[in-house]
Amino acid sequence: MGAQDRARLMMGARLLSALLPVTCGLLGVLISNLPVTLFGGLVPPPLLGFIPIYFWCLVRPDLMTPAVAFAIGILQDVMSGGPPGIWTLSFVVAYAVIQRQRDAFAGLAGVAAVLGFATAALIVCATAYFTTAVYYWHMSPLGPIVGELAITVLFYIPGAFVIGSLHRQLVGPLRSDF
Amino acid sequence: MSNNSWKIARRSNAQLPLVIVLALAVVLVLLGKAQSGLFDRARMRITDWMAPTLESVHAPIQAFNRWVASADELFVVYRENLELKDENARLKQWRNVAVVMQDRVRHYQQMLHAVPDPDINSVLARVIGRASRPFLQTMILDAGESRAVKPGEAVVDSRGMIGRIYLAGDHTSWVILLTDLNSRIPVTIASADGKTATLQAIMTGDNTAMPLLDTLQQVVTLHAGDQVVSSGDGGLLPPGLAIGTVVGDGDTARVALLADPASSEDVEVLGFRKPAEVLPATTQNQLPAVAAGLPPAAPPQPAPAPAAAPAKPGTPLPQMPRPAGNVSAQAQVPGPVPGGNE
Question: Which residues of chain B form beta strands (DSSP E)?
Answer without folding.
Answer: 121-133, 136-141, 154-156, 161-168, 173-177, 184-190, 199-204, 212-215, 227-230, 242-249, 252-257, 266-271
